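To: structure desk
From: M.T.
Subject: fold request, one chain
Message: Could you run this one when you get a chance? Sequence is below, nothing fancy, just the single chain.
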Amino acid sequence: MKINEDLTKPVMLDAGAMEWVPSPAAGVDRRMLYREGAEVARATSIVRYAAGSAFPPHVHSGGEEILVLSGTFQDEHGDYPAGSYFRNPPGTAHSPAAAEGCEIFVRLWQFRQGDGAQIVRQPGEGDPLPPRQGVAASRQLFDDGAERVVIESWAAGAAVTVPNRRGLEFLVLSGSMTVEGQATLSAQGWGRLPAGQDLTATAGAEGAKIWIKDAPLQHPDVLTMPV
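Reply: Done. Structure tokens follow.
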């Protein structure tokens, strides 16, 4: 299966309006944003767990990056309420579930060779950053030199430019923004821009909260998926 697999083209999706697609696990549905592969895939998705649902125990051979959007995501290591962010590097394992239901943003098989950084940020955690023009607050979740992940709160009506030297991926967490000449994205709106195409956007009347990853859209040494 291939979905938005051409990384040389910009993509903007109003993902909050997309249909849910059932996964192999009962009560777990997906909105597929990017995908290369079958059930084992290099993928970016929004995943919904119904109350009481669970996914079978599994090892993340290609790594997993998660942001909890609503509800509480759980595994044997703890509870992760909305706003939690974590990276499970290659070789880690868990048994995910959601007793009361949740929605998460998840990226699979996008780690690079030798990336073993395991990070857990509970809601509100992270390093404060000097905000760029038009941004009320900025918080860094992760930066290892090869990629940087931040959450920014954009002021109502603010025009914001995010420079893009190596690639940008972003998700609207709340509020809305209009990307110059392209689309208006509300909550769960997702976009991806190849290197050299800055993100130039205007926040909606209620402002916007944005998750942003500054990194190559695919690392040159990205882990190889099994055939």
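Reply (cont.): The CA atoms of residues 156 and 207 lie 4 Å apart. Let me know if you need anything else for the meeting.
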